[in-house]
Amino acid sequence: MEFTVSSAALLKGILDVSKAIPAKTPLPILENFLFNVKDSVLEITASDQELTLRTCVTLDNTIKDGSIAVPARQITELFKVLPDQPVTIKTTSDSSFECIWRNGNSSLPYFPAEDYPAIKGAGEDAVTVSFPAQTLAEGIAGTIYATADDEMRPAMNGIFFDISEASTTLVASDSHKLICYTTADVEAAQPASFILHKKAAAILRSTIEKIDGNVEVTFDASTVVFSAGSTMMVCRLVVGKYPKYRDVIPQNNSNILKIDRQLLLGTVRRISVCANKASNHIKLDLTPGQIEITAQDLGFAIAAYEKVECEYNGEPLSIGFKSSFLVEILNNMTCETLMIKFADARRAALILPSEEDATSDRICGIIMPIMVS
């Protein structure tokens, strides 16, 4: 194998896939990138067997095609400190290859490409849909923080993609809060769904957030493939049945609070400083035109309260929340004005952008209350 490539282009390619290199693995071959040169294109693959990233780099010149597995750490560190210039990479023996640049070179070991595990994609019965890249990145960013860390219920540790003939909803929940992101940009000929683990979702978001085009999503019962431009991600899906999330979304909460999101977020953050550190409990007392937020820690004899003017239509209501959950939801929404719909002090509150906001049909959150005195 022998080819010439821009060092900057190669560095970008290996960094794009390096997130799939495992920190620890029983298979030493997975500590390598798989280089495959064919038709003046270098295909770079990294995998931990659960998740695989693959990208393509256009070469300046190709002398000989071929495939080898190259040590990921050494070649990444080398190209990070190498100024942008043409670099020639060629195998020199059965076990080593050279990187030759303008005034120097290095010799590194490689391993046979045949030792690298085969990467399996989705099967023949797979479903394919197309996501606008920015919509997919926005949906992941808006929901991933609500995923759980639950060994007993692995389905809760990922984002549920609920695809229908009219729209697609991304759902995440840890049982204390639930976030739904809905878009009409993605639809399928028939209903389909899958659960993407939050680690894979985070890597996917970082891979596509700067892409302007579409992401093609192909999935079957066990595997999903995301393709965008020259980059492809293959990962195993979380196996399990996701709860019927639509059944827990409140439909008749008639006590409605409308308030500036940043104002409420700032107030909750200030008051929660005096909340009990173990519980993070705060209380909201709602009356027409006003909300009072209070917190106290009797053990340390500290307390705080703040009154905020707002638009509230409903019965006087006192309700408690865990402040960290409320801050997470408010901080991850992007609207200027939001609505919180309450039923009573014991039932879940529904948080969503106000009707005037352009994203009002995109995202909603549900937070469970707590009992406070």
What Rg, in angstroms, do the CA atoms define?
A: 26 Å
Q: How would you classify the helix and strand content by structural class?
A: alpha+beta
Average per-residue pLDDT, rounded, comes to 94
Let me know the largest β-sheet.
9 strands, antiparallel
Q: Strand order, main sheet: write it out.
A: 10-6-2-3-4-18-17-16-11
Report on this model:
The chain is an alpha+beta fold. It has six helices and 27 strands. A nine-stranded antiparallel sheet has the order 10-6-2-3-4-18-17-16-11. It has a nine-stranded antiparallel sheet with strand order 15-12-13-14-27-26-25-19-23. Helix 1 crosses helix 2. The longest helix has 12 residues.
Map the helices and strands.
Elements: E1 2-6, H1 7-17, E2 32-38, E3 41-47, E4 51-58, E5 61-64, E6 66-71, H2 72-80, E7 86-91, E8 96-101, E9 104-109, E10 111-112, E11 127-132, H3 133-143, E12 158-163, E13 168-173, E14 177-183, E15 192-197, H4 198-208, E16 214-219, E17 223-228, E18 231-236, E19 255-260, H5 261-272, E20 281-287, E21 290-297, E22 302-309, E23 311-313, E24 317-322, H6 323-332, E25 337-342, E26 349-353, E27 363-367
Antiparallel strand pairs: 1-5, 1-7, 2-3, 2-6, 3-4, 4-18, 6-10, 7-8, 8-9, 11-16, 12-13, 12-15, 13-14, 14-27, 16-17, 17-18, 19-23, 19-25, 20-21, 20-24, 21-22, 25-26, 26-27
